[in-house]
Amino acid sequence: FTIKANEVKAPVAPHMWGIFFEDINLSADGGIYAELVKNRSFEFNTPLMGWSIPKETAANGNVLVVNRHDTHPSNPRFARITVTGTRSFDMVNEGFRGMGIKAGEQYNFSVYARQQGSTPVKIRIALLDESGKEIGNAVVSPQGSEWQLYKASFTASATVAKAKLQVAFSGPGILDADMISLFPQHTWKERSNGLRADLVQLLVDLHPGFLRFPGGCIVEGKELTNRYQWKKTVGDVNDRELIINRWNTEFAHRATPDYYQSFGLGFFEYFQLAEDIGASPLPILNCGMACQYNSGEVVAVNELQPYIQDALDLVEFANGDTHTKWGALRAKMGHPEPFHLKMLGVGNEQWGPQYVERYTIFAKAIKDKYPDIKLVNSLGPSPDGDKFEFLNDTLRRLNADILDEHYYSSPGWFLSNAGRYDHYDRKGPKIFAGEYAAHTKDNGANKNSWQAALAEAAFMTGLERNTDVVVMASYAPLLAHVDGWQWAPDLIWFDNLRSYGTPNYYVQKLYANHKGSEVVSMLKGNQVITGQDSVYASAVLDKATGELVVKMVNAAATPVPVEVAVQGVKGLAASSRLITLQSNDLQALNSLDAPTHIAPTEKTIDTRRKTIKTTMAPWSFYVIRTKI
Ligand code: AHR
């Protein structure tokens, strides 16, 4: 192999390797959003889902869910608890597959409450372990007939993966209660209404260049009434209108009939998360079309204006002056500085002339007002087929900015498509590999095998070789709860207490952490290296550190000797870093109990003769960093 280090082919976009967040697999509620109470505001379709009334105290009172929709359309329901005797009436919240509680940590309880009638009702909360034993408690004493927020904190005495929250009301009396909430004190950056710190840390460690949000199919909704509407996800958390999650299903591998979107993690929090992890925000908006797999419902073209207005107002929310309506809301929520939004997605996985018709109207309105915003366009669900070809041709003719290609396919597809972009049209729109993952046929719960990760690593050499046309890429989906998922494989798995990165996560991490700044040519003879002798390869310069970074994949079951002559440099450092991701078992997985079974290891290799000489282990991914 030869690297011509003085032949720069293209810059690597600073946001090249990013992440794609969708609220699927309990990623938001029950996942990264640290709220522990499920159905805290009684807005699920079944108003008491997640709550139970233990029979021991059931005779001491009752609960009625009151609906005041006409006056409070965004948070219509609350619970009216009547305590009849002197003993308590209890309600128990099960959490999202239980509540993960850690010994020694502080938990913050809060509730909106008001007294009905003349006698106050006291609330005692207790966390219960799996056997029903108390592991922490607190008391609040609401008084007065106006809604007020009451808070109490306590420290848990034990670590429990599936705790429950007992809420005991003692009277006699009548109390109205809403937004019954429990958060750990320790969230990411210790924010109230915050995010799970371990999960955010895994994202930080990836060094993602962008954050695509909020989906995925949830942008579209199964039907338009349940599409994602960003304006309903900002402002006071109490006023964010809950909807059923598009991934709510009885038929998932782990059924999720209790899957809703509380929007406690809403658009403000997504922008803040992007900023925290150093990623450019990339929101995807509904373009007047529901999920075409489900309903094919579209909004009439002459009624598209509210959807377009949402897009225009989003730019103002993210970037606008604090004197503008939406910029002022951003400031009120605690972020007067702009979020520096530069890209916007119009529709997710839409297709057909209906999409083109709507996209064209969107694009004109957004570009007229915000000519510098780059638009990301859907290219449908898969690169194989008529839908893709039609959109690809049409959007290229319309001079679209960035086309969003999705590929979920076999490891073999990823290997044989590693050269996909080597001969792509350079003059047209840029490419965003917006969702991809190698899917194997095994029936295991977690399909993130080393075989899949290795195929993705090989494919990504082709993305990296062609950063003049491919400007962004993100694996999908990002997160999955082991007890409540609808889709696998996923990049990061978690339960209520623990989380881990899959082998695929480490592939993404190695690319993003060793992104470099410019692609240089790496050839075998005069050909790019896309599977000859089962090796896939690419090379970049890292101007900031003065290093050459070489990525190579050996997709074979046998060792492969490689020799890379580096031309166009004065010399190489005598020894260089070799980071390896490898397993002799293609079916190997990481897990909660063995989170780093497959993880990078590092050693040094001799590179003093302007040559990188090594024997690649079977089924391995190598990253070599050498000073030049
Ligand atoms: O990533 C899971 C789903 O795959 C996304 O919601 C959708 O865009 C794609 O079909």
What's the β-strand tally? 34
Residue-averaged pLDDT: 96
Please give the CATH class of the largest domain: Alpha Beta
Give the low-pLDDT segments: none
Broad shape: globular
User: Which ligands does the model contain, each kind named once?
Assistant: alpha-L-arabinofuranose
End-to-end separation in angstroms reads 17 Å
- Cα-atom Rg, whole angstroms? 26 Å
Descriptive overview:
- With 628 residues, the chain is of the alpha+beta class.
- It is built from eleven helices and 34 strands.
- The strands form six sheets. Strands 1, 26, 27, 28, 29, 30, 31, 32, 33 and 34 form a ten-stranded mixed beta sheet that branches.
- The longest helix has 18 residues, at 352-369.
- The chain starts with a strand and ends with a strand.
- The mean pLDDT is 96.
- The structure holds alpha-L-arabinofuranose.
List the helices and strands and how they pair.
Layout: E1 2-11, E2 19-20, E3 51-52, H1 55-58, E4 61-67, E5 77-83, E6 89-93, E7 99-101, E8 106-116, E9 122-128, E10 134-140, E11 148-155, E12 160-170, E13 173-184, H2 197-206, E14 210-213, H3 217-220, E15 243-244, E16 260-261, H4 267-276, E17 280-285, H5 305-319, H6 325-332, E18 343-346, H7 352-369, E19 374-378, H8 386-397, E20 402-409, H9 411-416, E21 430-438, H10 450-465, E22 470-475, E23 479-481, E24 492-494, E25 499-501, H11 503-513, E26 518-524, E27 527-528, E28 535-542, E29 547-554, E30 560-567, E31 575-582, E32 601-606, E33 611-616, E34 620-627
Parallel strand pairs: 1-30, 2-14, 14-17, 17-18, 18-19, 19-20, 20-21, 21-22, 23-24
Antiparallel strand pairs: 1-26, 3-6, 4-5, 5-13, 6-12, 7-12, 8-11, 8-13, 9-10, 9-12, 15-16, 24-25, 26-27, 26-28, 28-29, 29-34, 30-33, 31-32, 31-34
Residues 22, 24, 215-217, 348-349, 381, 435, 476-477, 487 line the site of alpha-L-arabinofuranose.
